[in-house]
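User: I'll paste a sequence; please echo it back and then give the predicted structure.

Assistant: Echoing your sequence first, then the prediction.
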Amino acid sequence: MLIADKWKDYSVIATGDGYKLERWKDIILLRPDPQVIWKSSIDLFSYPVHARYTRSDKGGGGWEYFKKVPEDWVISYGSLKFKVKPMGFKHTGLFPEQAANWDKMTALIKNAGRPISVLNLFAYTGGATCACLNAGASVCHVDASKGMVERAGENVRLSGLSDKPVRFIIDDCVKFVRREIKRGRRYDAVIMDPPSYGRGPNGEMWKIEDQLYDLVKLCSEVLSDNPLFFLINSYTTGLQPCVLKNVLTLAVANGRGRIEAYEVGLPTEEGIALPCGAGGIFIND
């Protein structure tokens, strides 16, 4: 497991009974987590939290506030800074476990010894974008949500990276990649974090099990002749790391480089690791 254990502004205090208790700088949140199937060693629902997200029996859910919470606030990971806030569907605008992937990509870019261009797809609020820019790469950040792309721009500015070479694109990722192929544009690295399910603007259905391979194969066509890496992250329950390894082997590697596949996780103050998804990376070294 690749564990994001270098955070100072974030920690998982405790887990159990389908929930995780988290510290986001000075704010304590209690959120559901489907991986947490064990019992808690403490009464999480009596813990003095600022806010708790509770799922509804009818679907969805909402935040319940017990203390004053700012509309948003900033947390740091090294020199990187990110704005977080309680959002719909229990989200905060940042996935702290991804810091483990940020560190891996940062090392690869810094050690490449050449300029590296990165295509970040389904790029959300720009954690990976900030990490790659900070490492010295140029980044094309693509997401279909205008609000998420705007938040990514804020995070880039907060991190002091506004002068770095970054393009922000609000578009359907698949359509954008197809246009990039036609334009002959190439990238040294591709990052993607596709959703489990989704619908396009015209009702198109996306299901990761059915379409991930074709997406990765398509994106392999925008890789440069000497690519550095291709990283896939997935939060889809049941999609094992070996699946990502097989997809990368068949769709990207073409007999070169090496592939790593792993769970991504967070340490907890209980002394266990909380699994948070799967990652796979092709590294051309």
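The two ends are 22 Å apart (CA to CA). The mean pLDDT is 95.
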